[in-house]
Each structure stands twice: as structure tokens, then as C-alpha cells.
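Hi L.,

You mentioned the student needs an example of a multi-chain input paired with its predicted structure. This one should do, with 829 residues in total across all chains.
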Amino acid sequence: MSWVWFVHLAAQGASAFALFVIAVTLAQNLVHLAQLGLAGAALARQPPEADSGSFWQRYSKAAPPIALLAPAYNEALTIVESVRSLLSMRYPDFEIIVINDGSTDETLNILVENFSLERTEGRDYDLVVEHRTIRGLYASSLHPRLLVIDKQNGGKADALNAGLNIATAPIICSMDADSLLEPDALLRAVQPFLEDPQRVIAVGGTIRVANGCHIADGRIVRVGAPKNLLALMQTVEYLRAFLMARLAWSQIGALTIISGAFGLFRRAAVLEVGGYAHGTVGEDMELVVRLHRHFRETCKPYKIAFVPEPVCWTEAPETLTVLSRQRARWHRGALETFERHRRMAFNPRYGAVGVVGFGWIVISDVIGPPTEMLGYVLLPLWWWMGALSFDYVLAFLGLTFAFGVALSVGALALEESELHRFPRTRDLMVLTGAAVLENLGYRQLNQLWRLHGTLQWVRGAKGWGEMTRKGFKSR
Amino acid sequence: MSLLALIWLVAVGLMAFSLVTMTALIGARVLHKQLRARRAARRAVVLPELVHRVGGLTSGPLDLKGLESDAVLMAEVVRDLAGLVSGRERTRLMEALRSVGVDGAMRRMLRRGRANHRVLAAEALAFFPGEETRTALLQAARSDGPRVRLAALQSAIELGEAPPIAEMLDSVVDGAERASLLFSDLLQRATRTQIDEAIRALARPDLPRAVRVMVMQALGASGDGRALAALRLGAAARDPEIRAGAFAALSLLGHPGARAVVADGLADADWRVRLKALECVRRLGLQDFFAEVMALADDEVWWVRHRAGQTLMSLADDDVAKLKAFATNVVKQRRQPTAPAAAQPGATSPGAGP
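Structure written out for the whole complex:
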């Protein structure tokens, strides 16, 4: 009797859970489809311009000053090439502020030696937002655009806050010191500020994977698909995330993240909300959500925009260990932000960002990973117990796979039709293969890492974990 | 049809969509490559011919092998080449291009087609002065696409054919145009030849605050003394943002007549006005305000203290005694944080900066 009862209960539970998994998956896929449509419409409405020469002609006269804030912690391997690359940016008025966040390696000495820096007292600043003590400022008459802040270690957010205090330009650009910017990245990304100076408070730019690209003197000279399989999967993933999801959400005012690797902010707006938050590994997302929240609550008109052109190139992890740490950390950051601002979720007071942006976080970040992973474990188990139909389980998995491929292909289509950044046809074919392959293993691994991030968040983990990079030596 | 069949049908449909899309993209890629090669080949035919014409090495009818009908190619060539030459060389080039009807092709392209091409046409037309060009550009400047509108406006202004200031402002007031920084730049350039119109525009009651500040800035940047009275009036406005804008414009104008209102600006209750008035003092080198500026080095707002310091440094010049007094004051003030309360409120908060 009890066995029959148990089987009956398991069958009921299996059906209910199967329906839940189907509902979550369906919701995710429908949202992805909507994102694809919105992104396609946005690109069709304002196709990106490839010619950077005409960009200068059109926008340089009106372009406001920008301060690039590049926090560096133990970046001795890459810092010189990164700074050289930044110094050769095409923008009429910019300053590079490298913030040495208490590096324990030779980052500061290497900077001092390579750029003839000298300690300076000639820079006054206000302590509007909190950060650890600044030990010294370094400047060079040979490179008047460069300023190096040496401070006690306090993390990326702390370093950015120090940069915020020191900067005087009305626009700041937060970036990773180990990323490569396109020469006209600032001129492209500043466009929304030029077009709508009263409302635009932040602009995100597209980040691309630099692995597989030919790099010389801190510049991407030829774009290519990575040879490493993990980096290849990430290339497709980045295309989908930036060209589809972020572009789409920016169109309806629901963009909740601007990548820490490249983002432009109105300095006054960031200071108004208190700068970058300490105590979170998702300081980039947290800042954007806080900006939304503050401007919504104070009823001030604002806009957070996104530019689809690739503006920044980053080195993607090529080993499972490093990638798993990065993804768990990203996911933890998203959950920390969600926790801090949970009252915005589904709250119409916060408009699209509350309903759509936070709704999406709930579906994709909060319930998505555990549901999908439980599905992978429980569905075969229940099928084995005879509680679910094999035909339906197989059909459902087939549909999920087909959706995944179609969405990645959609993102590739957007890239190919509007941006054309992969010059070789072979690369396009390789990426198509990756779009299929990523659904067979990579996607599941990713969910596992995100689940790990969820557990870290539950346990209250705080660290960043080690992020090993090879560096952008010319290759 | 059963649910199971439907699920499989959707899955197969999606896979078919993916396959067709990628095949089409790869096909389009091949086509695109061919088109690019053809464009490069056409450019290689046109450019040497035009370069020879620029250098006066050829004369007689221009022979572009029929490629003058490729409007996009010609627009790119005009934009790239005409910007590099001037004087007689440019005249020779433009006359030759006109003789084969390139200007007409540009005007046609400006009227219809993709936005990127229309912008390109507007930029190319900046090198073809004349009544027809003027009409075409001003018509496009009233069209619906913002990028085309601004490009056409810019070319018209470069040709010295700016539309009336009142009309430009109307487009912002009625919402057709955004009060963007690009518009502000064009307004400044248009104002140089229409000072009186811009002054009259300041009397319009319907101008939004941001646009009024833009007009004042344009007047300041013109460097024309006629703007002085209007800007002095702005410096006494009730709205502190207008007052700050007026002082910013007065410092751009650089006219000594601003002295009469500077004292009020330095004593203004709003920190933004004090800040801009300090810039005015620095720009005009108003030595007799040294004491007032010295007092502002002790202001409650960091930005004002900071600017006061810079102003004192420029005013004191080689007056060691004054600099010493200032240095003592600054050392006392240096890195003293702005009061937390002052750092918090609004985008216009002192901590947030100007």
C-alpha cells in the first residue's frame, strides 16, 4: 500500500515539477525571442557606422571631457601595454587615471619606470565618496594625460571611488586595466551623452572576447574566432549577451547592468548616489540598479543607454577552473544586487526596470539555475521510475536545444548583418558550430557554476577568487 | 496534431530556421566580399583621375568611366578627397565633379535612401555651394531623421547658409529637435553670423532653460561685444541655472564690461553661480576682485574653493606676498571634505561638481 502511495505521490510531484520546468524554460525562451526582436529593430533603426574617420568629423567638436578610471591590482604583466593603448585613444579631451589598488607586485614601479612618472602634490581633490587612503599621486610631463593613484588595497569599487573623487571631467569611464579599448571607443560610446545631455546618465558598450584575435601594440588588428573551445563558447555567449540582451533591455529602459570592463557614467550622477558600493562583487550591476532606483524615486528624468558597436576587448578564461570561479562570482554579484534592491522587483513604481529588468533577474538568475539543474537530475530519474513519458522528455529536451541554437544564431545574424567584425567566412562557420555545441555540455556547466555562485551567496562568501590571465602581449 | 508532434515540429522548425539563416549569412558574406572588392576597384579607377585633376595634370571633360552614377562611391570620394585640398585645387576638383553631375546625385541621395547614405550625401554637399544645395540641405534639415537633420544643418552652416536662429530654436521648442550637445555646437556656429537674432531669441518666453543657456553660451562663444548687455541681464535672472549660464557665457565672451556684474556673482547664494563668476574673474584677469576671490577660498563647497584657488594662482601672478597668503589659506583647506549633507542632494549637489 505504502509503495503504491509513494509512486502516486512521485508521479504527481513529477508532473507538477515538469510543468514548472516547462513554464520557466518557456518564459526564458520567450523573453530571449523578445530580446532578439527588440535588438534587431534597434540595429535596423540606427545601424552602426563603421567609418571612424567620419565619427571624428561629426562628434569631436561637441565631445565633453572624459576621465578613464582603470583600477589595477597586480597587473604588472599587462599594465604597460594597456596604458600605452589607452594613451593612443582617439578622443579630443580625455585623462587616464590608473588606480593602483595596493598591488603586491611591481605594478606601480613598472608604471613609474615606463612612463617617467614622478610623485606630485599638484592635484587637489574632494572626498565626496569614501575609499581607502591614497598613498600618493604620480604624473609625468611626458604624458600629461596620465595620472596614477597609489592607494591602499580596498577592492575594485574602492579604487573606482578614489578615481571618482580625483577626476574632474563630467563623464567618467570605468574600465578594467587589462581590457583593450577600440581607438574610437570613447567617441562611439559618448554619442548618447551628446544626443541627450539632459537625460543620459550612463552608457554601456559591447564587450568582445579578444582570444583568437591578432593583437599588436595594444590594438586588435584582426578579429578572429578563438582556437580554445571554452573561449569559443564564450565568444558566442558574449555576442548573445551584449548584442541581444543588453541592447534589447536598453531600448525599453530595463538595462540593469553595464559591464565593469567598459561603461561611461555622468560623474555627478554617480556621486549623487554615493559612488560604487563596497561589499559586493557585482559593483557594476549594483551601481546601475542604484542609479535606476534613485532617479525613479526622486522622479528625475534619466536614461541609461547602450551602444552595440564593439568598444572593448577582454581576455576570456581558457580553463575550466578560472571560468568557473568567474561565473560563480558574476552570479553571486547578481544575487547580491537582487537582495539589496529586492523591493524593486515587480514594483511598477520602478517602471520597466522593476517589472522587466528585475523580472528577468528572477527568471534567469534566481530560479533559473536551480530549476534547470534540478530538471537535469529529476526528469531522467522520474522517467526511469515511470512517472514521466520518455517521448515527452526527449521532445522537450529537443525543443530546448533548438531554441538555444536558434537564439545564438540570431545573435550571430545581428553581428553579421550589422557589424561584420569577423572578416573570415571560416570564423563565421566556426562560431555557428560553437552555437550548436554550447548547448551540449557548456550550457549545463555554466548553470552548475551559477548554482555554485548561488551557494556562495547563501553562505555569504565575499572574496573575488583568483583570476589568472595571460596578458595581451602582441600575438 | 498531438502535443508531442507539435513540440517536435517547433523544434525542427527552429533548427531549420537556424540552418537557413546561417546558410543565408554565409552566402551574403560571399556577396558582400564581392561587393567590397568591386567598390575598391571602382575607387581605384576614380581616385587617380580626380587626383590628377586636383593637381591640374589633366583638363577637358572628366572621364570617370560612368562611375559618377554610383552616388555612394562619389559621396565617399568627395568627403575623403575634398577635405584634403583647398583653394584652387578644391575649385578644380569641385568644378570637374559638377560637370559630371555629382552634385545633383548627392542632392538626390540626400532626399531618399538609407539614413547612413543620406548623412554621407549631406556631408558631401558641404563642398558644393549654391542655391540648389542650400535648398536641399535646409529641406533635409527639417526632415524627420535626427541624424540626417543634424548632418544637413551642419553642412548648411559650413556653407554659410545657416537657417535663421529662430527657426533652429523653434525645432527644439516644438520637440522636433533635441537640445543635444551636437545641436549646441551648431547653434554656436550659426550664432556667429546672427548675433542680433540670437540676442532677440533670449527674450522669447517659451525657451526651455537648457536651450536658453545654450543660446547664452553661443553668444559668449561668438566673442561679439553686442552680446554683453543680454548676458549681463541673464546674470541677474531669478533662475540660478540661468545666472550660472550667463556667467559662463560672460567668461567665454571675455569682455571687460562683465566686471559690473561679477561682484554679485561672487556673492551669489547659489554655489554654481559663484563658481562660474570665479571663472569669469580668472578669464578676464580682474585683479581688483582678489579679496573677494580670497574669501571664496574658504567657501563651504569644495568646487568653489578649488576654483578660487586656481583663480588666485592666475591673478596673483608674480605677487609673492599674495601667493603666500593664498598658500596659507589653501593648506588649511586642502582635502577638507565637503560637508556630507552637501554631498548628498540632487545632481546639482556641490559634491557632484559642475
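You could point out the following to them. Chain B touches chain A through 59 residues (CB under 8 Å). Residues 44-57+67-157 of chain B form one domain.

Best wishes,
N.
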